[in-house]
Amino acid sequence: MHTFEVWAPIPQSVRVHVDGTEHDMSRSPDGWWHADVDAESGARYGFVLDDSPTVLPDPRSPRQPDGVHLPSQLHDLDPAGWTDTMWTGRQLAGSVVYELHVGTFTQDGTFDAAIEKLDHLVELGVGFVELMPVAAFNGAHNWGYDGVLWYAVHEEYGGPDGLQRFVDACHGRGLAVVLDVVYNHLGPSGNYLDRFGPYLADGANSWGRVINLSDKDSGEVRRFIIENALRWFREFHIDALRLDAVHALVDNSTTHLLEELSIEVHSLATHLRRPLTLIAESDLNDPKIITARAAGGYGLSAQWDDDVHHAIHAAVSSERQGYYGDFGSLQALAHTLTHGYFHGGTYSTFRGRNHGRPMDIRRIPADTMLAYTCTHDQVGNRATGDRPSEYLTPGQLAVKAALVLCSPYTPMLFMGEEWGARTPFQYFTSHPEPELGEATAQGRRREFAEHGWDTDDIPDPQDPATFLRSKLDWTEPQQPAHARLLDCYRRLITLRHSRADLTDPWLEHLKVEYDEDKRWIALIRGDLRIVFNLGPSRVTVPVGGVPLLWWEEPEVDETASAITLPGHSFAVLDAEPIRVCTSRR
Hints:
Elements: E1 2-7, E2 14-18, E3 21-24, E4 26-27, E5 32-37, E6 44-49, E7 72-73, E8 97-100, H1 102-105, H2 111-115, H3 118-124, E9 128-131, E10 135-136, E11 149-153, H4 159-172, E12 176-181, H5 193-196, E13 200-205, E14 208-211, H6 218-236, E15 240-243, H7 257-272, E16 277-280, E17 302-304, H8 306-317, H9 330-339, E18 346-348, E19 353-355, E20 369-372, H10 376-380, H11 394-405, E21 410-414, H12 434-449, H13 464-468, H14 480-498, H15 500-503, E22 511-515, E23 520-525, E24 528-533, E25 539-541, E26 546-550, E27 555-556, E28 563-565, E29 569-574
C-alpha cells in the first residue's frame, strides 16, 4: 500500500492514475489530496485534474523515466548503494571548488562517466565538485536551468541512481558535492505546477514568471522549495547547494526564504552531524546574504563574487565591454581584492546607478566569497562561448589562476580551465518544440546583435553540434602546452593547502602594492609575496624574497630586495630566506 499525496488547491477534483487505473482522492482543508493505493515500487503514476483527460506528473516526482510530460515513477534509492557511512563532510573554508556540467564533462555525458574522471580532480587538489543543475527538464540536453520537476534527476545523465553513484564515489575519494539548484523560475516546457496550485506570482524576471513566495497560499510553495533542498541533503547525501540567482527571488515576507532555508538546513546539519553548505549566486553585492543571522543577516555560508572575476579578467585581458567597463585598472583590482566588492555603494556605469553595499571586512571572512577566473556564465554567456584560452597567452592564464588561488577567497575552477581547454562552452538547448527552439535561437542572436556581434558568428543553441563541440577533450591534458598549465594549477593548489598564509581569510591582513604604469601588482600575505606582471614586457618589482613557484623563471636582485619578471608571468616569493625553493619549470 502506498499513500499518494499532492497539494492541489485549484482543481475541484483530483484522481491518481496508477499503472493504468484511476483512483479517487480525498481533499483536506489545506488543499492536500490523499489516496492509499496498492502500488509496486517502480509503478507509473500521475494525477488527473477535474475533467481533463491528461495524466500529469507529480510535482514532487522522484523519477521521470519517460520525460517531463509523461507520468512519474515511484522510486526509492537503494540503501545498499551507499558506502559513505564514514563520510563526515567537508568545510567549504580552505577548499577549492570545481564546477562542471555533467553532459559535457565527458564524451558520454553521464554521472558514471564523470566518476571515471574523479581521480583527476583529487590529484588536482579539489575539495568540492559542483554540478550544474540536474533537475528534470524537457529535451535531451541543456544547461539545466530550465528544470520543471525539481525533485527528479534528469534521466539522460543517469537519473536518481546515477546521481547516488556519483555522490557516493565522490565521498569515497574525499570529495564533497555541490548541487546547483534553481528556485527563481521554471522552464518553458513541461511546467504544469500552475494547474495544481498558485506556484507562480504576477511579475517576471529574465527567464519567466516569478515564483510565489509571499502572496496568497505561498506557504506551501515555500515548503515545496525548502523540502526540495532538504531532500538533496538528506536522501542524496549532497554536501552543499548553490542557489541560482537569488536576486531574482521576489519575497516580501517578514522572514526571507533564504533565511528560512538557512534555519532549516542548519537544523538538518545538526541532526546529520556533518556540515551542510548554502552558496548563493547574487547580483546584489549585499553582504546581508552571508552575514550571520545573529547579526541580522540571512546566514548563508557563501556567495559567488563576480566583482573579483571582473576585476581579474579585465585587468589581465584588457576587455572593457559591458559590465567590465568599470574594471581593468590595477587600482580596481587592488580595491576589489581587499574589499570583497568593487561596487559597495558606488556608481556602476553598466547599471547607471549606485550599486551594492560595503562589506565589513573585520566581521565577514573572505572565504565566504567564491572567486574564479571563469564560470559557466562567464564563458557560456559570451556570444561564441569562447574560453580565455582562445584569446589570452598561457602566461596570462597562469596569472589569472595565481590571482585566484593565492587570494584570500575560496577558489572555484570551471571544468577544463586547469589545462587551458580549447573546447568552447556554448549555450545549447534541445527543445523538442520547434517553435520554442526557434524562439530561443532568435532571442540569442538578437541579444548579441544589439552588442555589435555578427549574427553569423553566434552558434545556434538548437544545433546538436553546438552541444557536441562544448564537450571537453580529455586528450588535451597530455599535450605539452596544456600539461604545463595543469602542472602550474596543481602546484598552486598544493602550495595553498600547505601554507596557512594563503588560506588566511581576513582581508585586513592582505596588503596589495601595484604600479599602474608598469603593470605589476603584488599581494603580501604573511611571509609570502605573490608578484604579478600583467604586461607583455619584463619588469622589475621592488619586492624581495626567495622564489618558491613561478610561471617563467624570475631574476632575483643580488640584494634580495627586488625581482624581475618576464612578461605575463607571476612568482610566489617567501620572505623567509631559510626556506628551500621547491619549484620547477
